[in-house]
Amino acid sequence: MPPTGSDPARMNRKKGDKGFESPRPYKLTHQVVCINNINFQRKSVVGFVELTIFPTVANLNRIKLNSKQCRIYRVRINDLEAAFIYNDPTLEVCHSESKQRNLNYFSNAYAAAVSAVDPDAGNGELCIKVPSELWKHVDELKVLKIHINFSLDQPKGGLHFVVPSVEGSMAERGAHVFSCGYQNSTRFWFPCVDSYSELCTWKLEFTVDAAMVAVSNGDLVETVYTHDMRKKTFHYMLTIPTSASNISLAIGPFEILVDPYMHEVTHFCLPQLLPLLKHTTSYLHEVFEFYEEILTCRYPYSCFKTVFIDEAYVEVAAYASMSIFSTNLLHSAMIIDETPLTRRCLAQSLAQQFFGCFISRMSWSDEWVLKGISGYIYGLWMKKTFGVNEYRHWIKEELDKIVAYELKTGGVLLHPIFGGGKEKDNPAPHPHFSIKHPHTLSWEYYTMFQCKAHLVMRLIENRISMEFMLQVFNKLLSLASTASSQKFQSHMWSQMLVSTSGFLKSISNVSGKDIQPLIKQWVDQSGVVKFYGSFAFNRKRNVLELEIKQDYTSPGTQKYVGPLKVTVQELDGSFNHTLQIEENSLKHDIPCHSKSRRNKKKKIPLMNGEEVDMDLSAMDADSPLLWIRIDPDMAVLRKVDSEQADFMWQYQLRYERDVVAQQEAISALERFPTPASRLALTDVLEQEQCFYRVRMAACFCLAKIANSMVSTWTGPPAMKSLFTRMFCCKTCPNIVKTNNFMSFQSYFLQKTMPVAMALLRDVHNLCPKEVLTFILDLIKYNDNRKNKFSDNYYRAEMIDALANSVTPAVSVNNEVRTLDNLNPDVRLILEEITRFLNMEKLLPSYRHTITVSCLRAIRVLQKNGHVPSDPSLFKSYAEYGHFVDIRIAALEAVVDYTKVDRSYEELQWLLTMVQNDPVPYVRHKILNMLTKNPPFTKSMESPLCNEALVDQLWKLMNSGTSHDWRLRCGAVDLYFTLFGLSRPSCLPLPELGLVLNLKEKKAVLNPTIIPEAIAGNQEAAVNPSSHTQLVGFQNPEDDHLAKEASCNMSAHQQGVKRKADTPLGSPLEPGQILEKNEDSSKVKLKIRFSSSQDEEEIDMDTVHDSQAFISHHLNMLERPSTPGLSKYRPANSRSALIPQHSAGCDGTPTTKPQWNMELPRKGTGIHVSVSHLEGKEQPPLEMSVHTAAAAPLSVFGKEPASSKHSEHHHHHHHEHKKKKKKHKHKHKHKHRRDGRERGRGPLAFPSPAGGRSARSPSLYRLSRAGGPAPACRAAYRTSTSSAGKMIERKKKSPSSKHLIYIIYTIET
């Protein structure tokens, strides 16, 4: 029920001062989504939506909504037909004629295209005009109901159909469909306001075949069968206000399981997987209990649903009251390795139910708060479930990841602030994509963003205490749940949105502490801290002189000022010291508590209160120090390189009880290959009570040390005797005991040790024969009959061990390797791998782990030259139909082959797969793997780098991936890795259309370039007889579409007045018919009227033209297009009739020019009148351009129509002299842009500083005089229209018969 009793004018305001100002002139209160037909055969969906909105401004006359891919049939507002325009600039970012190929240009165009339809800026792809009959209704701020009929045919994103090609009905085949996507992607499957900040209540109805189940958000109210019992409709109600972005759907022949512990929780899986589902979800109720307990708050929704589906977009996707998981997370009780991973996924999705679904965000710059809180409470769950060691290990892992990423790429910014002159304190860390919008982010950046967000929450907890932290979360949740129950007070709902400022205010209210410096350091800035620590002990003063240096000049680093904890373990105990890191202080004196007294036998107290005996013979006689740790609690996002003696690292490894310290010691000991290090590592391996991950790391460190000590090593190979003692028969040491994996710690060690041993090398750099025999024996005598757990991961690791033992082949006098003359050891390895692969065909292992390891091992054999390098095996395993893990492993091998063998054919095969593979995840992974392991990079020459590849990748990211944000950003990443930011080096230089004479500061036309297409282009003139309707809107206010942060440019768009009939059968303008034209992949607009409105004169204001919008937004690399309607402009050029007007770069608002265009109903002439505007702006770059012959250009000074109607034009122009005067001085400039014509001009000017390009449209004015042009800095350009025809003007000079190119000039 839509709210009625509230005062709509107050709906945009929130109580208190967290004020949420909606960017939209209306408040959405309720939405109905009804999908009444789903066809799995055709992969199509038909349905309608109904949005209930309250206007918040009196003169609301157009409504912008989001919709992608959907075909819109009809829009009605309060049962009256409404005209609409559909325009999506993200379909094709840069227009196809453009020869621009540099990434800077693309990124700016893409960011502009995304903000042109960004709901958080009040924009959208679908623009609906409110019928004039309802204007009075709107002025009284009464409710509007917008009813939209739509269909979706073979969607490429947003909804994913999985239809196995086997026999039987759809339900028998296990066909299913589910919604998916990255961030706010709901617009891909139904029209909505696709913003996290627009909340409303929902009614969802889905009609499906009787054998299918539809799962969606909220409570299932009823299921109604049709009369013939062949179909049924599921009715869901979601009474908690939720954003469209958190709405989801899954339809399939699901098996249903009601959770035995919590009846409001229901689980769904595909047929025949019910036993796995029971086991996998049996633990979920404990996660619920944990979160409800720490948050002291009930789970916010009345029900929770988990759906496990195939071909998932991501492993976990959380939506309001339901989560969609990959079916590959399901496992039985026999599987060890997958269990903790799946539980972590379940816990993660539940944390996001509280923060992310129930509590949403105000804007993209507040995303870090939600990701941070959900990641933080998930960490608390991990600490409780897996223990403190696992938790600290995870924090260290995450910290290492974010540090490595920021140092490599230049930083991750959690809270991007836009505009407001904050640019200096808030630099964009990434050159090749914009961070102002989630849809322009690289996927890897977004993953790291989430990682950094939860680490920063942990830093806040360190500062204010966990108790206060949980109180803040509880406060946010209780405010939100109070607001969500206000059914008729929709202005209260903004309490359910979190903002950075609101969150920080809660913290200071609850804890009374000021955390502003911490926020400034980690949230408002990007970068991590890099410390270098070294020390000396001063025996005289008994002080430790510690020197801590910082590197804050490298990319991705920042300067740290503040407290830093240092822990010193002395003979008398462990002592904590807090140092104050100042601007320039480096040296810190720390007093020591204990005198050096190694001769007295006394136990040494450790940090945790434990007292231990130590052998102190290794330590320095003069110093009481055992080891030193800088920032042991990881209270700074940092990388620490500290120098201490090898015996200190050995003591730290043996006796420090913190797993992070032990791991640091293991990494450091790789640099000290001594018998003492060997002994310390062996002792740790033998210690049962040592954390298993530390012991696993010790295995690999020991292998490295053994290889460095290869000439002095005594005894059997490293770890062999240890493994024999732990896992082999007493009587026959080369036979392994029957498997018993009851102790998980020893299971992980048993799996890891052989893999590390295989890395051992002898003096000749070969794997020792006895190690290889030992591994082959482990495989041979492996017996899992009495084990209650599966050994598939263990066997897979044995194959990895075989692969690790392979060393490069030594070729004798260039003989060709064939399978007959294989090295005998390699033959044994290859036979094992072949046997395993064949066994897998008969008895597949869980998740096909063994096949995956075999494929990797074969690639290792190929790379080392033992078997012929050939990708065909991998290509067959990578085909659609194999299990996804196998496909990824095979594709990884093909990517590697492409790089090593520089194979253009395989690169093409991979890119074809990126375009055509049915599974979105696989396409994403291929781009990701190519980026991580590229066939070549921007800094090297490669035969693979050619013009065709540049075009192919450009096309892929420009228009081929518009249906999937993640895929497009992946293509951008790959393009950046291969070609860098500027124009790829393999492209030919564009021919210069102008010859610059620098001495005389002139530019003369290059006589060698004569466009051939002009001659045959006469037909492309606007055809005056095909009158088409263009529907527009009128809006008294300026439409501020977006602001460019660098030069707050607001683009004002002005419409065209135009009266016309549409005779039956006249072709609609391609710019207006909403039909997807498959080959050109352009979307056209469709304008509908009810018959009564046919004659109505309509004003058009701000019809979004994609390219026009972008060209305004791009103050980069753009050249002027031809103003006005050209005799040679093709009729289908999309924005021929949409004038553009933008304010000057200084941000001064400008009034709109009066553009009038009338199409008489019967005549054939086109009357155009345009007011001329004086430009007073001084261009930053000056250049004179002289025409080759001084032809009179007066006609072109005034917007030309087709030349035979120029008299009309003069006559009309005369009428408008008065208007002209009125506006003469108000405008900076005028500029009419043809969106299709984005030719890469013959001359590229560097973009001047300040974000204003040399070709910024705001600096152009049409010269009305003939003869030599005044000082100007733009030039003639060649470009082709979408029809591939030349669109330059040419006019025969009456005096000279020469072809004269018209040159646009700027009055300076």
UniProtKB/TrEMBL annotation:
Q: One GO biological process from the UniProt record? A: RNA polymerase II preinitiation complex assembly
GO MF terms held by the record: chromatin binding; RNA polymerase II general transcription initiation factor activity; transcription cis-regulatory region binding
Matching entries from CDD domains are given as: M1_like_TAF2 (cd09839)
Q: Which Gene3D superfamilies match?
A: Neutral Protease Domain 2, tricorn interacting facor f3 domain
Q: Which residue spans traverse the membrane? A: none
List locations, semicolon-separated: Nucleus
Positions of the Transcription initiation factor TFIID subunit 2 Ig-like domain: 526-644
Write down the superkingdom of origin: Eukaryota
Q: Does the keyword Transferase apply?
A: no
Q: What is its main location?
A: nucleus
Q: Secretion signal: which residues?
A: none
Q: Which segments constitute the Transcription initiation factor TFIID subunit 2 TPR repeats domain?
A: 646-1004
Family matches, as InterPro entries = Aminopeptidase_N-like_N_sf, ARM-type_fold, Ig-like_TAF2, Peptidase_M4/M1_CTD_sf, TAF2, TPR_TAF2_C
Note the Pfam families from the entry. TAF2_3rd (PF25316), TPR_TAF2_C (PF25577)
Similarity comment text for this entry: Belongs to the TAF2 family.
Q: What does this protein do?
A: The TFIID basal transcription factor complex plays a major role in the initiation of RNA polymerase II (Pol II)-dependent transcription. TFIID recognizes and binds promoters with or without a TATA box via its subunit TBP, a TATA-box-binding protein, and promotes assembly of the pre-initiation complex (PIC). The TFIID complex consists of TBP and TBP-associated factors (TAFs), including TAF1, TAF2, TAF3, TAF4, TAF5, TAF6, TAF7, TAF8, TAF9, TAF10, TAF11, TAF12 and TAF13. TAF2 forms a promoter DNA binding subcomplex of TFIID, together with TAF7 and TAF1.
Subunit and interaction comment: Component of the TFIID basal transcription factor complex, composed of TATA-box-binding protein TBP, and a number of TBP-associated factors (TAFs), including TAF1, TAF2, TAF3, TAF4, TAF5, TAF6, TAF7, TAF8, TAF9, TAF10, TAF11, TAF12 and TAF13. Interacts with TAF2C1. Component of the TFTC-HAT complex.
Protein name in the entry? Transcription initiation factor TFIID subunit 2
Q: Which organism's genome codes for this protein? A: Bison bison bison
